[in-house]
Amino acid sequence: MKKTFFLVLTLTAVLSAAAQSIYDYQVKNADGQTVSMADYRGRVLLIVNTATKCGFTPQYKELEELYERYHAEGLEILDFPCNQFGQQAPGSIQEIRQFCTANYGTQFAQMDKIDVNGPQAAPLYTFLKEKRGFGGFDTTDQRGKMMDDMMRKRDADYDKNADIKWNFTKFLVSRDGRVIRRYEPTEPVAGIEQDIQMELNPVLSNMMARRSVRKYLDKPVEHDKLAIIARCGINAPSGMNRQPWVVRVVEDQRLIADVTEVYRQANAEQVKRDQGFKNMFRNAPNIICVCTPTDGSGQLDAGLLGENMMLAAQAMGLGTCCLGGPVRFITGNPQAKFFLDRLDIPQGYQLCYILAVGYPDEQPEAKPRDAEKVKFVK
User: Fold this and answer.
1) DSSP 3-state assignment of 343?
2) Interhelix angle for 93-104 vs 59-70, to 10°?
3) Among 319, 337, 345, 332, CA closest to 245
4) Nearest to residue 79, comparing CAs of 55, 46, 53?
5) CA nearest neighbour of 330 among 254, 261, 270
6) Active site includes 82?
């Protein structure tokens, strides 16, 4: 019996490790039917572990309101009742469903009861916790401080692991399966709504998903895609429509290799330390060189041009990174002049920045942003 138990645990761990996407998992609904998470591909998901006898149970009402407002736009809420926290989800799944519909009129999908922590935790929740660990309760909030105090009395190091801490913890998943955020039960549901709105809007979600990519697959970007990126770039805002930029999209792999060889010789020790080094542009298979007037004007417009191109690339599944180091090297090393000559930069213009472009070989996490830098003047 003990041997079988450990075999099951090992198999669960192996399956969890093998799963690369939320769409690789299956769950059971309230009727006991197996549901593939792949059925929700293309939908924004809010996944929540619930309980019917908890102080947070009234959040069912707010969740239903979210569902009614945004379901038609692509939101799905997946409710997983769990009895692991204070035994606050007693009864059968049928009794729980009856309670929810009778008291809160819930229409969103309700799944079978599960464990979210421990050896019997549902593999889906193991995956969610791996993607988004516990970020702490907001102790400036009364309820957050109460939860922190309660948890710390039970375990002084409770915040050191990714376990679900209580009922009504929520995970937001994008249309393409990325686990974007985790919300502790003390976070107001109203505050989650803005994140949902941004994920439902394809333009906003594309902006929020863009990251600087520094690892690329060894696969050149198709010419048609590069042409679309450039077209989106030159349609960026430009003061008085001056369009003070010159754009050069480099598809010539030999040119990239030749200028990289100059860089390699000048930075031999640095290149030697980088075992994955292929070229001086973060190993990107293609680059876009943006030039601006030598008098220093046009840089604001060029920045808007670059942002358009990076967002266009993101929308097509490509990664980008804005590079300044290669510009300084190329413009400061006479042996790299052939590269500038090949770009055929008009007189009166200079290389401003270079965009690395390619198929990403990584999925970087978002860097923290300081919301305190934004003030609203009313």
Assistant:
1) helix
2) 70
3) 345
4) 46
5) 261
6) no
> What type of residue sits at position 147?
M
SS3 313: helix
CA dihedral 187, 203, 323, 301 (to 10 degrees): -120
Distance spanning both ends of the chain, measured CA to CA: 68
Cβ neighbours of 252 (radius 10 Å): 10
In 3D space, the residue among 54, 52, 58, 70 whose CA is nearest the CA of residue 110 turns out to be: 52
Give bridge partners of residue 254 from the DSSP assignment.
none
CA distance 164 to 130: 11
Residue (of 53, 62, 169) closest to 108 by Cα position: 62
Q: How many CA atoms lie within 13 A of 248 on its CB side?
A: 22
Residue type, 328: R
Q: What pLDDT does 2 receive?
A: 44
Rg of the Cα atoms in the chain: 26
Annotated catalytic residue: which of 54, 291, 322, 352? 54
Token pair belonging to 181:
């955020």
pLDDT at 13 over 50: no
> pLDDT tens digits, residue range 320-361?
999 999 999 999 999 999 999 999 999 999 999 999 999 999
CA distance linking residue 64 with residue 140, whole number of Å:
28
